[in-house]
Amino acid sequence: MTKMTHFLNLKTPNALYTEHNRFIKVIQGSLHIHTHADLFHWLQGDLQEYLPHQILLASWRGAGKHALEVDIISALMEMRTSNVVNADMLPLRRNLLARWEKGGHELFEIQNEDGFDLDLGKFDTPNSVTAHFKRMRSALIHGIKDERERDQILYVVFNQALCLPRSAQLYFKLLLPYIDTALRQLPPFRPQANIKAVQKSYVEFGLSLREKEIMDWVRVGKTNEVIGVILNISPFTVKNHLKRIFRKLDVSNRAQAVSKIHEHAEAYRAG
Question: Which domains does the chain have, with CATH numbers?
Fold first, then answer.
């Protein structure tokens, strides 16, 4: 019997009682979420046995006519709200929202062997972000309607597996109200605040003005060649600057550098 077996299908009363308590414990975990880190650990913990996923995307309308707010929770490298918020998610969101509304606001599943595409017309969409979405093979989509605010939040859980356990749909329905409540208690990502935190991190690590410029482009996935064209310097010069940046950050590659700046900036914002 697999971990994903729905507890209503368990045969013995003792097994039913045990599984019921485990699921209740997962739900109770949502009551102790006060930060984005708490939400991350809850979603990546025992909840994964009931709703396996690599990316959770929440999206809702922003203040402007075409504005979009997004929140990403994922353990994948560079798959962060601070990166995804700059990606043009509108086409993907419009498509999924239209299908959800057409289906009577019922949960639905998409299986796609070719993965999921973002709008690549956005200049600052990180390559790592688009690559991660392309690796996803399935998604469960559902939403929460807010009649008072006349808005709706769309939730999408992406998975690298093409076929999900049938119980995942039921668990998504059961868990979504708790996910939604937890997310609504957290402040949305604010790009300006993040920029300030990142700049503070640059200063504390002793990066020069040129090194700061290069790291800004590294963080959105640009190659040495592209950075060289943007800053009007050679790729070789970019490479030398990166070596100095790595020494200052005490890391050995680009991914580690981005991760360290992100973690330092998050700590600054939280503190």
Answer: 50-184 (3.30.450), 191-270 (1.10.10.10)
DSSP 112-171: -TT----BTT-TT--HHHHHHHHH--EEEEEEEEETTTTEEEEEEEEESSSS--THHHHH
pTM score:
0.66
Buried b (16+ CB within 10 A) or exposed e, 122-148: eeebbebbbebbeebbbbbbbbbeeee
Which pLDDT score, from 0 to 100, does residue 186 have? 82
User: Hunting for tokens 């507890």 — which residue is that?
Assistant: 7
Helices (H), the chain: 13-28, 36-44, 47-50, 81-84, 90-102, 127-135, 167-184, 191-204, 209-219, 224-231, 235-249, 254-270
For residue 189, the 8-state DSSP code is: P
195-230: pLDDT as tens digits: 778 888 899 999 998 999 899 888 766 788 888 887
In the sheet with 151-159, reading across from the earlier edge strand, the strands are: 68-74, 55-61, 151-159, 138-146, 108-111
Both tokens of residue 175?
């868990």
